[in-house]
Write a structure and sequence with these properties.
Shape: globular
Number of strands: 35
Strand order of the largest sheet: 1-28-27-26
Mean pLDDT: 86
Strand content: over 45%
Distance between the termini: 20 Å
Number of helices: 1
Length: about 425
């Protein structure tokens, strides 16, 4: 038993990737001469993932490794322009041409993409971006449609003072932000009224992507990242390490870690990483094809996913990378100078015990409990936490007596300890 436990601990330690890189997850996506060239956008609703090209759309159900096409659930000739989801519904915007007339529509699904409901929206201008917060859904199309009941009914706000241009719309807290090629607007009433935020974007730049984490908001432009730490009142421009001539099409933020996905240039920059809230940037492209555009990113289940367009005879499609890979440096705080996972107390215990740990760096942190066969039996922590010392109570009343392992993963730091449930 002792030898087996030793091997198991070693296996858990080695479970983190020895060669950190982006992993291709495009099985089932369409191929051209044996390669998946591109995916335009990706998203999720609940535990179902979605990916779309211009004229084809796919889903990947929970606990499956293969994408399946669901294009036949939409009108023939549909051209997809946006997809966004929440825990219960996935919204897909597309347009179709009937008798030389363009019709832009939004469908939604509440059953993992099996059936789709037509919302009744019908416009000639394309829907370029959808934003969701709770039951509020906003869709921009040279005007704004708004739903306050999770997409069941919609109101056209175009008669109000809605900006006529927009690349990306995002709801952060109670504020809504709309970025366009040369302007940037903010609404505090979900689109009833808008105020242009002057002096944020330089005249030759525009806003292509928006991300947030905590009190920080990030704008992706060409070729800069703007950051606000006061809910959008003031902004600072950051270019240190960002290549020239690229457009920041996609952004992802988790604590002080930020990813920026670029449009393709002759230098093929791909994704850049900042671990200091956007102040400095460096390439983060291991595993990607040499020619690439990163058009969409999101975080899910301890991974960050990216939609990649690649060159001929290269695999584009969907890639993912563990969130733990994003922490590449450690900034020691005044009070916490090292990682540590304490022995649980009391031990043995019945039915509850306390687990304490500390981290000198803000990162995405997890604490999971395993049985001696390596099966996960509980997740106690799975979120971003600032540097500091923490304690959590673990209730094992539903577990049988025996030896269990609890593992802390904070960035690239991983440690496992043993505890005993004795009833």
């Amino acid at each position: 038993m002792k030898m087996f436990f030793g091997y198991l601990v070693v296996a858990l330690f080695l479970s983190t990737s020895a060669f950190a890189q982006w992993d291709w997850k495009g099985g089932g996506l369409p191929e051209f001469y044996g390669y998946c060239e591109y995916i335009k956008m990706i998203g999720k609703s609940g535990n179902t993932l979605y990916a779309a090209q211009n004229n084809r759309i796919f889903r990947k159900l929970e606990n499956t490794d293969t994408w399946t096409e669901i294009t036949d659930k939409f009108p023939s000739g549909a051209r997809f322009t946006e997809l966004q989801g929440n825990d219960t519904r996935m919204f897909v915007a597309f347009y179709e041409t009937i008798n030389s007339v363009t019709h832009t529509r939004i469908y939604y699904s509440s059953d993992n993409g099996e059936n789709w409901i037509n919302t009744g929206i019908d416009k000639s201008a394309n829907i370029t971006s959808i934003a969701i917060s709770g039951d509020i859904v906003l869709a921009f199309y040279q005007g704004i449609f708004r739903s306050t009941d999770n997409g069941s009914t919609w109101v056209d706000l175009s008669a109000l003072s809605t900006p006529s241009q927009g690349n990306v719309i995002k709801i952060i807290g109670t504020d809504t932000y709309l970025g366009a090629d040369h302007t940037f607007h903010r609404s505090t009433d979900y689109g009833d009224s808008w105020t242009e935020v002057a002096g944020v974007i330089q005249t030759y730049e525009g806003v292509s992507s928006i991300a947030s984490s905590g009190s920080k908001i990030y704008l992706g432009s060409k070729p800069s990242v703007y950051k606000s730490e006061d809910n959008g009142l003031t902004w600072t421009r950051h270019t240190n390490g960002i290549p020239t001539g690229v457009d920041v099409l996609a952004m992802f933020a988790d604590g002080s870690t930020v990813l920026a996905g670029f449009s393709q240039s002759y230098l093929n920059h791909g994704v850049y990483l900042s671990t200091d809230s956007g102040e400095n940037w460096a390439a983060f492209n291991e595993g990607f094809p040499n020619t690439r555009t990163i058009s969409s990113m999101f975080g899910y289940d301890q991974y960050v996913y990216a939609a990649v367009s690649a060159g001929l005879y290269m695999n584009g499609g969907v890639y993912r990378r563990p969130l733990s890979d994003l922490v590449t440096s450690v900034e020691v705080t005044d009070n916490v100078v090292s990682f540590n996972l304490s022995q649980n107390f009391p031990n043995p215990f019945n039915p509850s015990t306390k687990i304490s740990w500390q981290s000198p760096v803000g990162s995405h942190q997890t604490i999971k409990v395993y049985d001696v066969l390596g099966n996960e039996v509980a997740t106690l922590v799975n979120e971003y936490r600032e540097a500091g010392t923490y304690e959590i109570t673990f209730d094992a009343s539903q577990l049988a007596s025996g030896i269990y392992l609890y593992k802390l993963q904070a960035g690239s730091f991983v440690v496992t300890k043993k505890m005993i449930v004795l009833k």
